[in-house]
Amino acid sequence: MSDFVTSVLSRVGLPVAFQFDVEHVTVINAGTIILLQVLVSRIVRDWRPLPTMVTGMAFGAAGFLLLASSMSPWVFVLGIAVFSLGEMTAHPKYYSFIGQVAPADRKALYMGYAFLYGVFGSLLGSSLGAFLYERVLKPTAGTPQASGTARAFWLMFAVLDVIAAAAFVLFARLFAPDTPQTRRQALAVMRVVYAAILLAGGGFLSLAFTQTPVQPRMAVQALLFIGLGLGGLVIMGARRSSEPVPDP
Question: Which residue intervals of the chain are DSSP H helices?
Answer without folding.
Answer: 2-11, 23-44, 49-69, 73-90, 94-101, 107-114, 117-120, 127-132, 146-175, 180-210, 216-242
